[in-house]
Amino acid sequence: MTTTLDPELEQLVYERPDSLVDCATHYCPGCTHGVAHRLIAEVIDEMGIREKTIGVASVGCSVFAYNYFNFDFVQAPHGRAPAMATGVKRVLPDRFVITYQGDGDMASIGMAEVVHAAARGENICVFFINNANYGMTGGQMAPTTLPGQKTSSSPSGRDIETQGYPIRAAELLATLDGASYVVRRSLHDPKNIRLAKKAIRTAFEVQARGLGFSMVEMLSICPTNWGMTPLQSLQWLEEKMVPYYALNDFKVHPAVAEIRI
Amino acid sequence: MPPKGRIEVNELLCKGCELCVGACPQKVIALDMDRITPKGYHPASLISDGCTGCGICAVVCPEAAITVFRETIKVRANQ
Ligand SMILES: Cc1ncc(C[n+]2csc(CCOP(=O)(O)OP(=O)(O)O)c2C)c(N)n1
Ligand code: SF4
Ligand code: SF4
Fold it and tell me: Any idea which architecture B5-70 has in CATH?
């Protein structure tokens, strides 16, 4: 931007983090993938670890995350990001290694990879974006789609008799001994966005201390496939998703509980 | 008097999603229907005085399109 700041008159309250490339994203207007990106970038800036972080992108709307984050990135086949992150971290243990995955990617085709990475206690951070559908391919039902929720492949609403129940991935991973920090947050209002950022920071601190696997699930909106405006989507998330997907800390290793941010 | 602030919206990034409009506690942001960005959106902009530089719009903006400024304590002290 063009305006310069006169430090006598004004202070800077907020500016775009350096860990984001200065370019427009392809995300739909209002999509909170962008908020999740921003929070991760802010934390990396604040910790000064941009040169030491390697991201693993997944398949889904966030497949181009490597174009938007201003640090090293690789891109994994659908669902395989935790396996690829395992390899990267084991070869380069002094780097911070993160995955960024949607719910179709992580909780469907990639369920095995994330469960085993957590069971092995891999020292990586998984950032999991739950928007209750497959965004990129046209809003099909995901494992996270709510009972009764209409999607392009469940036009009469998800029927639990034939299509089963949604998977609560955070609760599931929290049962594994190898997981150190597993929480769910939401991106639907400023307070919850701040709490999500704190959880992302904690996850990075867990990795910095070698405490093992961390996963931060973030409830996120998909206005395009939900067929709502972004503001209506925030409300839908709060009213429908939050009651099903409790915002909670599901696993906090005693050593993690001592981390002060 | 609350502190005075202002925002700058990067119009190459803003997609007119209105999340900042909904979140602004002072209700001083709206889409500018007289303007159109290179991507074809009406960008968010300040519509009246009253911005306090709280930064909540920047917390919700998915595009990290908003820069937030607030007057310094020195300026406030001289008012
Ligand atoms: C092996 C393989 N199977 C299927 C696909 C098709 N595919 C692309 S993205 C996607 C789902 C993405 O959904 P999600 O992970 O929820 O991310 P979102 O787009 O909602 O952010 C699928 C099934 C693929 N690219 N590769
Ligand atoms: S389709 Fe949904 S998840 Fe994908 S960019 Fe658009 S709003 Fe976001
Ligand atoms: S939240 Fe960001 S992208 Fe959305 S209208 Fe406001 S400035 Fe534009």
Answer: 2-Layer Sandwich (3.30)
